[in-house]
Design goal:
With 356 residues, this protein is of the alpha/beta class. Helix content is 38%, strand content 12%. The radius of gyration is 19 Å and the shape is globular.
Length: 356
């Protein structure tokens, strides 16, 4: 089934992990054998051939670069200008993939419909470009809110104001606090250009402030449920209900620590924690129970978002295994119509509404 994945850090993997995503996943793993600089070396799950094999023809693909103040221990860049330059290098990679025919940017309704027609023409996927919608994960790299206009010009269509920790425009995972004047100015520029607000990673204070001040389209590209895994990275039922009221779609994530309670990074394993693909459906189903329907769920896998098979469901070898999800949904009693909504339909309905 045609599938949309609403969160993949493709350019980060290419530029910071130094992965040639045009290669097979086996080849990428072979080249990383013996490397120890990152815990997911030789365990990656994402490549462009695997996206094609899994019929994942459209993704939301990120730029990401954090600014870190002198007292911030997180990895990142020491000035917003450096962070901006890093995102521009990532943009150049996407453009290089486009020039080679590997990818194609989707930035409006016409390009979306043309791409869907190409992918659903009943021909093999081998030579089809992966469509991507450009998103910025964490807004620190926007030197001022005026940079939103520049970024919109090169195709940026979604922004998550925060990532991990404190940010220049909002506070993210494991941080607390409100957005303030700078964040509200960012939201105003996003609304002016009809850029989607990605609520993922916003801490509770910044989440509620963002939704109070922003009147444009909202989604959560990759987020699970606090009721199932009690951590501030997840959404509370109150937050989920607010997103439902805003006609948002929430993408289920496949990072194991977000799926099962009690995960200890660097120690837990998917097998020992019984973390498998159906656990994500527990989170999706919880959202459906709050909504009373299946209109607000999708996939935002976050696969290879600084983790690999060591922190993914044990029944997933590569991203192509997202094609196991329809059968798992069917086993839970989801209808064929609802399964199509999860795999692509809800994201498409959202985009068509935003870009009409």
């Amino acid at each position: 089934m045609f599938t949309i994945d609403a969160h993949l850090d493709l350019s980060m993997n290419a530029m910071e992990w130094n992965r040639d995503l045009r290669q097979s996943i086996q080849r990428i793993r072979e080249r990383e054998a013996g490397m120890t600089d990152k815990p997911d070396r030789a365990k990656g799950t994402v490549s462009l051939p695997e996206l094609r094999r899994g019929n994942i023809g459209l993704v939301v693909a990120t730029q990401i670069a954090r600014y870190v103040a002198p007292d911030n221990p997180l990895p990142g860049w020491q000035s917003p200008e450096q962070a901006w330059a890093q995102t521009q290098g990532q943009r150049s990679w996407y453009e290089a993939m486009e020039a080679e025919g590997q990818m194609v940017q989707i930035r409006d309704l016409a390009s979306l419909e043309n791409h869907l027609n190409r992918w659903n023409d009943n021909t093999p996927n081998d030579d089809k470009p992966i469509g991507y919608i450009l998103s910025l994960e964490g807004a620190d790299s926007l030197i001022t809110p005026a940079y939103v206009e520049r970024a919109y010009g090169y195709g940026l269509r979604a922004i998550g104001p925060a990532h991990y920790g404190p940010g220049r425009y909002a506070q993210g995972t494991d941080a607390t606090g409100f957005m303030g004047a700078a964040g509200r100015a960012l939201l105003a520029e996003m609304e002016r250009f009809n850029i989607i607000l990605d609520a993922t990673h916003l801490c509770d204070d910044s989440f509620w402030e963002a939704l109070d001040y922003f009147n444009g389209p909202v989604w959560a590209s990759h987020n699970n449920c606090r009721a199932l895994v009690n951590h501030n990275r997840q959404f509370s039922d109150e937050q989920i209900r607010e997103l439902i009221a805003r006609n948002a779609v929430i993408g289920g994530a496949l990072d194991a620590w977000m799926m099962v309670p009690g995960w200890v990074r660097g120690q837990s394993t998917p097998d020992a924690m019984n973390c498998h693909l159906a656990v994500m459906i527990d989170h999706l189903d919880h959202i459906c129970q709050l909504a009373g329907n299946a209109n607000h769920i999708g996939i935002g896998s976050d696969l290879d978002g600084a983790f690999g098979r060591e922190q993914s469901p044990y029944d997933l070898d590569t991203i192509a295994d997202l094609q196991k999800i329809p059968d798992l949904l069917r086993q839970r009693g989801y209808t064929d119509d609802d399964i199509a909504k999860v795999m692509h339909g809800n994201w498409l309905r959202f985009l068509r509404s935003v870009w009409q």
